[in-house]
Structure formats: C-alpha cells, structure tokens
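Question (not urgent): is this output format expected?
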Amino acid sequence: MSKQDNTGVDAAFEMLLEEIESVIEEVNQSGGRAFSDGKLDVAQQILTQAQTLTDFRSNVASLRENWGELYAVQNEEVKEIVSKRDLGRLKKGLRTKEAFYYSPILRVLTSKGGRGEIGEVLDQVHVLVKDSLKPVDTEPLASDPKVPRWRNAACWARCTMVKEGSLKTDSPRGVWEMTESGSKWLKKNGG
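Got this back:
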C-alpha cells in the first residue's frame, strides 16, 4: 500500500488479520496434539482446515491491499473529511506490513548460503530491522505474550514468500530456504 489510510479500514484489516492468525495458530496446535496422540485421521482433517484458514488469511491480506489502492486514488478533500472521524477502540499505530520483511529475510538467507533455521534467521532479521520497527511491532501478541508482533509478521511474510516462489515449499520443518526466484527478487529490489 503506497500511503497509510486514516479511515480505520487499514486498522480494522490489521486487527482482523491478527485474529485470523491467532485462530490458525490454535488450529495448528490442535493438529500437532492430534498427530502426537496418533490420531492421524483427525490430524489430517485439522491440516485441511488450517490450509483453508491460511488461504482465507491470504484473501483478506489481498483485500487489504486492494483497499490501499482504492484509498490512494481518493481526492485529498475526501481523505481529510474521512480522517477526522473518531475511530474509537482501534489501536493507534499499525504493525509494519509483512512485505517489509521480504528483503531482510532474503538478505539473511543469502548470508547463510541460502538456508537457515527459523530462530537464527529471525534473530538476524531483527538485527536488520529493529531500528525501523514501529512501537506496536515490539508489543507481544495477545494470543502468545512471548512472541512480539514483528516476529509473527515476519513468519507470515515467509508464508507469502513461499506462495510467490521466493522460498522453497519443501524445506525441512524449521528451515527456511531461498529459491533462485528469491535470489533474483533480492537483486532486483536492492538486496
């Protein structure tokens, strides 16, 4: 999105995305428990549900981008009127968009020979982005107070990057791997 909107719609999308992500995390945990308990048929059903929810989240993220494009073409007079509304309970300050993390993730993976374990990659991404994060990015998630919002957004960026072909889909669990397409993207976008 080229410009932040002050209508609250972007904030509402942000809240919706966080809630969906929280539900997906709960479903994933349930699937892990079912798998551990040897209930493979239940685990498979939960996996299917998690994939459906992840696809839905991607659709909401796309709608958010569409909104940004629509809002960007409004004239300034309309934007000023709309931005003066009282937005009530919506949080001030939105988290940094997940696309912000694409370049740092690819830069870290490049420095590690194209692949790395999640924890190490995210720790190094944090070093690269910490001075650019908004205060809201460092707040903990409501669903997991041990995880800062930026880390969750970076993990969702990874999911999008897999769908777009910048990261491999068949990496071992806990490992992120860059593709040739990811390397080209980084070169093209100033990495």
